[in-house]
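Hi V.,

Quick status before I head out on leave. The structure for the redesign project is tokenized and pasted below; the design run finished overnight.
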């Protein structure tokens, strides 16, 4: 048999065997994997529907618990609030909360009050049939001291049910019965679940299941198996999933059905068919490839050997050789021919080698001469380039190619001399990009550099040929408007700059909208020297940035006064720390239930012998900016702890003292150690210290805040969130923080109870805090109407000028009582 035929038969047999193995593997393993993935998806769909239903049930449960802890409900069960039903059992309450059943049961298991409503018709109806199967004396739903939630089956359908013990708002009184609320599992709720989960879901009741043999079989199978879900193919395109709903006794009362397209299975089957088709095509191509290799390995080699020998003879080239591939007869013949050629070539090579060596020596000498010439020219060119580069570096910014500070000062000095001789006006615009540091920190300096280059290009487009734009460094630019007719011309240029900066700026994949702060100074009105003009323009720019940025500010004489006043105040503030010019006042916090003083807030005051009594709003921001707030804050913390301990040693009942921590203090790496050291030094027990921290300070670095707050909480210190509602604390984060107290900001208290929005926000914050077991303090209470509103809505504590202004240490002590005078603190008159 010929070699070519042998190769063809071998290739055909191997490829047929490979196709058979591939077919078996794909159908018995790959298709099984796709079926498993399909079942997993159906299970996930069922699980999402089940979770959505459970969330609706849990919302009913939380609503039931909330109604169970009303003081008015507790008084009703005691027989002291006969108007409770008429005041609260109103149709809007049912509809807004999607509640179909509200009942109150006494401890004997008898119905004290209750209503059922049809939320579609918005009318009261009789209790659903079948309710008596679940609610009777000593049944799980009305049995005291046991909360429960689940499902029951009524004549109207499946109803979510929840029960909770009836206690007072503080949960300090014994239970008087149970509250049982119900919510019908209506088509609207099912539609909401479909929309939330994006799963096509249907609910089957027992009577519907009984009429369908297939559903009956699945229902019995699911009820008898421990697994929660059952998956069944409907046809080749649809997969159905089933989940059983059980009542509070564990009895199956209904079944969910989800519909999942069999996209995964169909795609897998299609892929396997494509896979087999591709392999068949590849088999044919592989066979042709083998034939081609046969020709290349044998026939073409013989042709190549013949061609090589003929080429050597024709070209008379002794360096050419025939190819030596393989170890067969063809290769042996090729080696013999090459051995003959080697002998002939060796003789000629020796002669040529001597000639080549001499030629190379001459070439090497010539190359060395050429290299020396090139190197000398290169050194001369490099020296010239370095000289030009040094000159440019000395006068221009390397990033934007704009004049730098040195060159700008030189040009401004010359232009000022010319303006003085010609009696012309000019303007200096000092520009700073707002929040540019954020771009550098978030995206890196390369992106920041591209932003600066683009901004510089935009600035140049707004200027005349005679104007000068310079980059002083960082994100600061300065513009010299030469020879202007009126100061208002600077306003026009500034407005153009603000406008072009506000246009979107695209750098790579990022898009920015920048704002700038511009300070304007006019020559000669605002200064005649280079130093004065730049200083005053910088001062005006700083004033614009202090006001929020994004606009321009002309220099005024008052800015000098403000700057000097700020320097004077800062110097006095530094001395005040060493001279003990600070003192603390204390504003009491009253408990609304009985009016007793439960704690005080320490408030700093500065009484300077030169400047008089200075408002904290004036010196605290300066202390924050200069960093002195760390020393001042530590002094306040130590003094407050000392005073509180002193009151205890004088025999007064222990109270909690609250101290404000600034954002800079809170971010201090050793704040927990500092607090612990001060508590040890003053011997004050940690539970009598409360640290107030603003929302903004906490949310600036959530991970650090959680770690620090837990460290403080671990040592026993109470944590309060100050100015709650003005920041951006999310509920998910609030649960992570070990917070004891929330202080509602006085901006929400100011217009109570007349402002509907403030009233709604205040009520919601109180409810949210109480649901998380957090106390609520309302600050800034100034009217009796505000106090009454907060009392009506179960606010825990209040403070404000209506109750008491901040008091000195001695006057605050007069409001406290001795330990032997009884439990609790003195109430304010």
């Amino acid at each position: 048999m010929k070699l070519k035929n042998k190769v063809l038969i071998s290739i055909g047999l191997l490829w047929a065997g490979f196709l058979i193995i591939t077919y078996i593997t794909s159908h018995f393993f790959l298709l099984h994997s796709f079926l498993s993935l399909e079942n997993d998806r159906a299970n996930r769909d069922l699980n999402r529907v089940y979770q959505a239903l459970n969330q609706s049930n849990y919302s009913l449960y939380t609503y039931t618990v909330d109604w169970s802890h009303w003081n008015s409900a507790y008084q009703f069960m005691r027989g002291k609030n006969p108007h409770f039903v008429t005041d609260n059992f109103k149709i809007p309450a049912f509809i807004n909360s999607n509640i179909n059943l509200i009942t109150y049961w006494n401890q004997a298991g008898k119905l004290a009050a209750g209503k059922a409503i049809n939320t579609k018709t918005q009318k009261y109806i009789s209790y659903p049939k079948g309710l008596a199967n679940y609610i009777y004396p000593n049944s799980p739903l009305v049995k005291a001291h046991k909360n429960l939630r689940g499902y029951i089956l009524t004549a109207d359908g499946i109803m979510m049910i929840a029960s909770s013990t009836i206690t007072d708002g503080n949960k300090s009184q014994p239970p008087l019965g149970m509250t049982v609320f119900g919510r019908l599992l209506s088509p609207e709720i099912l539609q909401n679940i479909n929309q939330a989960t994006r799963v096509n879901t249907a609910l089957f009741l027992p009577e519907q299941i009984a009429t369908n043999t297939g559903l009956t079989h699945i229902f019995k199978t699911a009820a008898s198996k421990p697994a929660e879900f059952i998956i069944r193919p409907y046809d080749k395109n649809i997969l159905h999933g089933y989940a059983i709903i059980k009542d509070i006794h564990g009895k199956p009362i209904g079944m969910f059905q989800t519909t999942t397209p069999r996209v995964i299975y169909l795609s897998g089957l299609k892929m396997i068919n494509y896979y087999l088709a591709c392999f068949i095509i590849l088999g044919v191509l592989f066979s042709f490839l083998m034939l081609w290799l046969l020709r290349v390995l044998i026939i073409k080699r013989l042709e190549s050997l013949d061609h090589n020998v003929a080429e050597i003879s024709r070209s008379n080239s002794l360096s050419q050789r025939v190819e030596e591939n393989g170890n067969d007869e063809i290769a042996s013949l090729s080696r013999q021919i090459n051995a003959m050629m080697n002998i002939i070539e060796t003789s000629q090579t020796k002669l040529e080698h001597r000639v080549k060596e001499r030629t190379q020596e001459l070439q090497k000498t010539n190359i060395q001469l050429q290299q020396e010439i090139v190197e000398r020219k290169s050194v001369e060119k490099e020296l010239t380039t370095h000289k030009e580069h040094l000159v440019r570096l000395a006068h221009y910014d390397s990033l934007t190619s704009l004049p730098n500070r040195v060159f700008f000062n030189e040009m401004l000095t010359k232009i000022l001399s010319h303006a003085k001789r010609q009696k012309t006006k000019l303007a200096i615009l000092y520009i700073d990009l707002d929040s540019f540091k954020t771009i550098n920190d978030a995206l890196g300096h390369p992106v920041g550099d591209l932003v600066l280059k683009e901004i510089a290009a935009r600035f140049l487009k707004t200027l005349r040929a005679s104007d000068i734009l310079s980059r002083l460094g960082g994100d600061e630019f300065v513009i010299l408007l030469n020879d202007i007719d009126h100061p208002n011309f600077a306003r026009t240029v500034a407005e153009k700059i603000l406008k072009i900066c506000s246009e979107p700026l695209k750098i790579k994949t990022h898009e920015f909208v920048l704002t700038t702060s511009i300070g304007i100074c006019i020559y000669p009105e605002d200064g005649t020297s280079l130093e004065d003009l730049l200083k005053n323009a910088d001062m005006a720019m700083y004033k614009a940035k202090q006001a929020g940025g994004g606009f321009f500010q002309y220099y005024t004489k008052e800015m000098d006064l403000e700057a000097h006043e700020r320097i004077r105040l800062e110097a006095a503030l530094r001395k005040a720390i060493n001279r003990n010019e600070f003192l603390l006042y204390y504003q009491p916090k009253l408990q609304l239930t009985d009016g007793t003083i439960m704690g005080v807030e320490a408030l700093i005051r500065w009484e300077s012998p030169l400047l008089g009594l200075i408002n904290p709003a004036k010196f605290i921001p300066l202390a924050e900016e200069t960093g002195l707030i760390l020393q001042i804050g530590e002094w306040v913390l130590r003094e407050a702890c000392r005073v509180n301990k002193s009151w205890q040693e004088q025999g007064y009942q222990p109270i909690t003292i609250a101290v404000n921590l600034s954002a800079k203090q809170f971010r201090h790496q050793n704040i927990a150690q500092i607090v612990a050291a001060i508590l040890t030094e003053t011997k004050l027990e940690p539970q009598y210290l409360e640290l107030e921290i603003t929302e903004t300070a906490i949310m600036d670095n959530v991970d650090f805040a959680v770690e620090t707050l837990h460290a403080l909480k671990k040592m026993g210190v109470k944590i309060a969130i100050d100015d709650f509602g003005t920041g951006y604390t999310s509920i998910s984060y609030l649960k992570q923080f070990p917070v004891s107290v929330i202080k509602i900001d006085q901006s929400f208290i100011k217009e109570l109870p007349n402002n509907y929005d403030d009233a709604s926000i205040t009520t919601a914050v109180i409810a949210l805090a109480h649901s998380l077991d957090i106390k609520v303090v309302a600050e800034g209470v100034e009217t009796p109407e505000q106090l009454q509103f907060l009392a009506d809505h179960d606010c825990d504590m209040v403070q404000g000028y209506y109750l008491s202004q901040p008091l000195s240490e001695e006057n605050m002590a007069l409001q406290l009582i001795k330990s032997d005078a009884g439990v609790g603190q003195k109430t304010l008159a």
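Above is the designed sequence. The mean pLDDT is 83.

G. will cover questions while I'm gone.

Best,
W.
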